[in-house]
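Hi R.,

As promised on Friday, here is the backbone we talked about, encoded as C-alpha cells. Could you run it through your design pipeline when you get a chance and send me back a sequence?
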C-alpha cells in the first residue's frame, strides 16, 4: 500500500493506492486545509489513523522546487524532506517530487473524459508535451518521449519575468512593479495574482467598484473565488471582475504559448490547476487562443498544437501514485503504460 499526497499552498489531498489496482484507484481519500496544520507529517498521521490497512511507502508532490528529496514550499511555510518523512512516519521509503512533475506523470494516463479541448490541433507522434497550471501559484512542467515512454520533468517557469503583450498589460506591469521587487508570471497569473489584477482595474478607474463586492472582498480570507464568481455570474457579471478574468486568461494564453515554443510542445499543451476547470467558458472565448497563437512567424505552428484543459481534480495525485508505484516495483520501466498521444 502506498500513501500519496498532493501538497499545495491552499489544500493538501491525501489518498491510498495499491500496486495491484494502479494509480487511478483510491482506496481512501481525504482533503485537508494546508494552513490548519504545522507540517505534512501531521496531516499524514491524522489520515493514517483512520485507515484499516497498513501503509509502507509514501510519495508526495509539493508546490515548489525539489532538490535531493527536499523542498521548501513556495506558498506555504513548510520544509519537507523525504528522509524525515520516512523516519517520522515509520515508512520503508518515501519520495518527494514537484507537483507539476507529478501532473506531467499523469498526463499519459488521462482518459478523454478527463480533458476538455480548447484546440483539437494535430498532435505529432512522440512530440514533447507541456503543462501549465494556475492554482495558488503558477506551475509549469513538460514531458519528452525517450523512445519507450513519456517522462515528466519539472520547471519553475512560472517565476520567470512577466512580459506584457499589450499597452494595457504594460500599464499593469508598471503598477505591479511599484508593489513587488520582481514581477513574475505567477504574480499576474495565479490564484494569488487574480486579486492584483482586480486592484489594478479598480485603481485605474476601469469601472466603479460594487460596494457589496468590496465589502465581501474586505472580509474574505481568499478573494480569488469571489472575483471569479463575479466574472462568471449569469445575467449581470461584475465589470471589474470580467476585466480581471479576461486579462488573466490572456496572460495565461500568452505564457502557455511561450511554454509551447520553449519545449516545442507539438504533442500538446495541457492546462491544469484548480482555476482552469472553473472558467472553461472564459477559456473558450477568443482571449486565450489569440494570445496563445500571437507569436509572429510561429503563429501557424501553434495553431496546430492541441490544447486541453485537465478537468479532473486528481491529476497530480494520480501522477504521484504512478511515480511512487513505479519506485515500489523497483523499476521505472514498470510504470503504468505511457503511450504516445
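Update: got your reply. Pasting your designed sequence below so it's all in one thread:
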Amino acid at each position: 500500500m502506498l500513501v500519496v499526497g498532493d501538497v499545495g499552498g491552499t489544500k493538501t489531498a491525501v489518498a491510498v493506492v495499491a500496486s495491484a489496482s494502479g494509480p487511478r484507484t483510491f482506496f481512501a481519500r481525504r482533503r485537508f486545509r494546508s494552513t490548519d496544520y504545522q507540517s505534512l507529517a501531521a496531516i499524514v498521521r491524522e489520515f493514517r489513523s483512520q485507515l484499516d490497512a497498513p501503509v509502507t511507502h509514501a510519495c508526495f508532490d509539493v508546490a515548489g522546487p525539489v532538490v535531493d528529496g527536499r523542498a521548501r514550499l513556495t506558498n506555504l511555510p513548510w520544509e519537507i524532506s523525504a528522509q524525515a518523512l520516512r523516519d517520522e512516519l515509520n515508512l520503508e521509503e518515501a519520495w518527494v517530487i514537484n507537483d507539476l512533475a507529478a501532473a506531467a506523470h499523469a498526463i499519459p494516463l488521462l482518459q478523454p473524459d478527463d480533458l476538455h479541448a480548447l484546440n483539437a490541433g494535430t498532435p505529432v507522434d512522440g512530440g514533447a508535451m507541456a503543462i501549465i497550471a494556475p492554482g495558488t501559484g503558477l506551475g509549469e512542467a513538460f514531458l519528452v518521449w525517450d523512445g519507450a515512454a513519456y517522462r515528466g520533468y519539472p520547471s519553475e517557469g512560472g517565476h520567470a519575468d512577466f512580459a506584457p503583450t499589450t499597452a494595457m498589460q504594460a500599464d499593469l506591469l508598471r503598477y505591479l512593479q511599484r508593489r513587488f521587487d520582481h514581477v513574475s508570471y505567477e504574480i499576474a497569473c495565479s490564484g494569488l495574482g487574480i486579486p492584483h489584477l482586480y486592484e489594478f482595474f479598480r485603481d485605474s478607474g476601469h469601472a466603479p467598484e460594487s460596494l457589496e463586492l468590496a465589502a465581501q472582498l474586505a472580509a474574505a480570507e481568499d478573494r480569488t473565488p469571489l472575483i471569479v464568481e463575479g466574472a462568471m455570474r449569469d445575467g449581470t457579471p461584475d465589470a471589474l471582475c470580467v476585466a480581471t478574468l479576461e486579462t488573466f486568461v490572456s496572460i495565461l494564453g500568452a505564457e502557455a504559448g511561450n511554454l509551447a515554443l520553449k519545449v516545442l510542445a507539438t504533442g500538446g499543451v495541457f492546462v491544469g490547476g484548480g482555476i482552469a476547470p472553473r472558467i472553461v467558458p472564459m477559456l473558450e472565448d477568443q482571449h486565450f487562443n489569440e494570445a496563445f497563437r500571437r507569436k509572429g512567424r510561429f503563429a501557424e505552428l501553434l495553431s496546430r498544437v492541441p490544447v486541453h484543459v485537465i478537468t479532473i481534480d486528481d491529476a497530480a495525485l494520480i501522477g504521484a501514485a504512478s511515480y511512487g508505484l513505479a519506485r515500489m516495483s523497483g523499476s521505472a520501466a514498470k510504470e503504468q503504460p505511457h503511450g504516445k498521444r
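One thing I noticed while checking it: The CA atoms of residues 95 and 221 lie 32 Å apart.

Thanks again,
M.
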